[in-house]
Amino acid sequence: MDGPGLVRRVVGGVLAVAVCGALSGFSGGAERVASARDRPAVPEAPAVVRRVSAPAGGTVSWGRRVLAGVGAPGVVGPAGMGHPVRETVIKKKDPCARAKCVALTFDDGPMGSTGRLLGILAGRRVRATFFLVGQNVVKDPETVRRESAAGHEIANHSYTHADLGRLPEGKAVEEVTRTQDAIRLASGVTPVLLRPPYGSTDKRLASIARRMGLAQILWTVDPLDWSDRDTDAVERRVMKSVRPGSVVLMHDIHATTVAAVPRIIDRLAARGYTFVTVTELFGGDLEPGGKYVRREP
Ligand code: NI
Asked: Is 176 part of a structural domain of the chain?
C-alpha cells in the first residue's frame, strides 16, 4: 500500500505516473491510496490521480469500480488475452463515457397524464426512466407495457408509495416484491432499480435491495414540481441545476410537469445533452443495494 506513495515522494511525478498506470488495473485501490494518503503531503498528487482516472480518454471511474483502459487505443492487450472482448462490451454499455448525458426520471405513475408524456418523448426520440407505484401499475398495466415497449426503463417505487426506511422489514420487503411482480406481469420486465419514496432509505433497506437485485436511485436535480405545480418554475429550476451526469426527478402524475418536459428537452438538446435511461447513465455499473445520485464526471 505504501509503495506507490514512497516512490512518488522520492522520485517525483513522471515515474509516479508510470507506477500508478501499472497499478490502475487493481480496481479502486491505486486511486484510493493516492487520494487519501498522499494528497496532504504531496501537492502534485491530484494531478497524478487524474492521470490514473482518465488516461487519454480511456479509463472511467464511477460507482465502486475503476475500469482500466476502457476504449483507449493502445492499452488493449493482444488477441486471446480477453481484453478486446471486455473493451467492446463496456463501450456498448457506456455511451456516457464521452457524451454529455442526463437521465430524466418520472415518479409515481402511471396516471392520466402519462400517456401525453409518452407522446412527447416519442416525438423527440427521448428515452426516460419511470419509477412506478405498484398499485398504479395494476390499475393501468397497458401504459406500463407501452412505456417499456417504447424503450424507457421501468423501475420500482414501492407499492403504496410507502416510507420504506421506516417500515418494519417484512412490510418493506412486501412493498418492493409486490411492485416487482406487478411490473413483471404488466410488461415482462423485471426492474433492477428502486427509488425509495421520499428518498427514505437506510442500511436495512440497502440490504433488502441488495438481496432483491435492485440498485437504489436517488436524484441530483429536484424542481419540487409537486409543490407549486407551476410549469415555468419546473423548467427554470431544472435548467438552472442540471449538469452532465445529473438524474432529474419529476412526476408524470402532474399535467403541469408534463407541459414543461418539451421545453426542458429542447433546451437541454440545444446544450448538447444526450438523454439516457438511468442504467445507461451509469454505464451498467450499478451494484444492487448501492445508492446513486448522479454519475460522477
Ligand atoms: Ni414518489
From this structure: yes
CA distances from 162 to 24, 166, 174, 290 (A): 42, 9, 11, 20
Instruction: Write the CATH number for 106.
Output: 3.20.20.370
Q: At what angle do helices 45-53 and 13-23 cross, to 10 degrees?
A: 30
157 is catalytic: no
Q: Which is catalytic among the residues 38, 140, 157, 251?
A: 251
| Residue 285 CA to ligand 1 centre (angstroms) | 24
Residue 220 in any domain: the answer is: yes
Distance 226 CA to ligand 1 centre (A): 10
Range of the domain at 115: 100-292
Residue 1 lies in a domain: no
Compute the C-alpha angle 273/150/250, nearest 5°. Answer: 55
Asked about 254 being catalytic, the answer comes back as no
**Ligand 1 centroid from CA 157, angstroms:** 7
Among 69, 92, 115, the domain boundary falls at: 92
Q: How far is the CA of 198 from the centre of ligand 1 (A)?
A: 6
List per-residue pLDDT tens for the chain, 297 residues long: 333 333 333 333 333 333 333 333 333 333 333 333 333 333 333 332 222 233 333 333 333 333 333 333 333 333 344 444 444 444 456 889 999 999 999 999 999 999 999 999 999 999 999 999 999 999 999 999 999 999 999 999 999 999 999 999 999 999 999 999 999 999 999 999 999 999 999 999 999 999 999 999 999 999 999 999 999 999 999 999 999 999 999 999 999 999 999 999 999 999 999 999 999 999 989 999 999 999 988
